[in-house]
Design a protein that fits this description.
By secondary structure, the protein is mainly α. The protein has helices at about 1-35, 35-60, 65-90, 100-120, 125-150, 160-175, 175-210, 215-225, 225-240, 240-265, 285-305, 310-330, and strands spanning about 125, 270, 275-280, 280. It starts with a helix and ends with a helix.
Length: about 325
């Protein structure tokens, strides 16, 4: 029991320090090249914090456990939005760069529509579906990087242009580019290892304490792969980078559908998992998928219309997540 506890604490330390270094490296690169933080959050940071989902889902698919890959993708989107982004909005709501925010949101709903089409109409996912999802991921990355490079710094207010122009120079003198890259890579590695240690040893501790397996699966396993996004969000908030946190969540949600699911389906296609039912229908189609769409709509659409995130969005999302968890327990 002592060893799992020590490894659990080590995993927590890795997550905290890894998140700190990861955000420092990402924001340092953003300042250096004058790339909007939300672009960095929606690409580099999102890929790094989605690594646990990729590893868990790909391994599960190869081993023939398609239900884990499917549930991980849907559940992670709900958790990222209704828990992680909700905390960010409830604590630090603010303005949103609609131009930068629009691209990942549009791509998410396109990918979600394709994902839902497979689930509702075909009842499963063929290999060609995985290839299409990976293709969407590739197109998104190309367009987002091009958008970030072309529009970097163009939206700065005129009064702040001179001050912002000096920031990359000061950053270069204070910290070399290679050090920012090292912080980014090492931070991502620590986050991935920390999440793995926390999930594995947390599960062992819970089992030793007699916690039911269903509770272990819902908390440690389902939420475990979203710990990197949570740590990155908290670290970003502490450092005043709310835009980076929200960009990371939206990007991670998109990657859960196109990268995580795309990789899993391509490696080993699977049918829609048959779990519990609601009114004789698959609960995933009646509850999980609709909740995924609802929480993403609440987080993104008002922001695209008004250009601001509001505290009511965060509170509403947290209430939905609490109700969703209660449904999972009582079901």
């Amino acid at each position: 029991m002592l060893i799992p506890v020590l490894l659990f604490l080590l995993g927590l330390l890795f997550l905290i320090k890894g998140g700190d270094w990861f955000v420092d490296g990402a924001t340092g690169i953003a300042r250096r090249f004058r790339i909007p933080e939300i672009i960095v959050g929606a690409t580099v940071v999102s890929i790094g914090t989605t690594l646990p989902e990729v590893m868990v889902s790909a391994t599960s698919a190869v081993m023939g456990h398609g239900e884990i890959a499917y549930g991980n993708a849907i559940g992670s989107v709900i958790c990222n939005t209704a828990l992680i982004a909700a905390l960010t909005l409830a604590i630090l709501p603010g303005k949103v760069d609609r131009k930068s925010f629009r691209t990942p949101v549009i791509f998410f709903f396109i990918a979600a529509a394709f994902y839902i089409l497979n689930a509702y109409l075909f009842g499963g996912f063929a290999r060609w579906s995985g290839i299409v999802l990976l293709s969407i991921f590739a197109v998104y990355m190309i367009l987002t990087v091009r958008q970030g490079l072309a529009g970097a710094g163009n939206d700065l207010p005129a009064a702040d242009e001179e001050e912002e122009r000096e920031k990359p120079i000061e950053s270069v003198r204070a910290r070399a580019l290679w050090l920012d890259l090292v912080l980014l890579v090492v931070g991502a590695a620590l986050i991935a290892v920390g999440a793995d240690l926390l999930v594995d040893n947390g599960t062992k501790i819970a089992a030793a304490l007699g916690v039911p397996e269903s509770v272990i699966a819902l908390t440690f396993v389902a939420l475990g792969t979203s710990l990197p996004e949570l740590v990155t969000a908290i670290t970003s908030l502490a450092k005043g980078h709310g835009a980076l946190s929200l960009g990371n969540v939206v990007g991670a949600n998109l990657f859960n559908l196109v990268l995580v699911s795309g990789m899993s389906i391509t490696l080993n296609p699977f049918e829609l998992p048959a779990g519990k039912t609601v009114a004789g229908m698959n609960a995933s189609l009646v509850v999980d998928v609709p909740v995924m769409l609802i929480v993403m709509w609440i987080m993104t659409i008002p922001a695209l219309i008004t250009g601001r995130m509001r505290r009511w969005q965060g509170i509403s999302l947290l209430m939905i997540y609490a109700a969703f968890c209660v449904f999972q327990f009582i079901g």
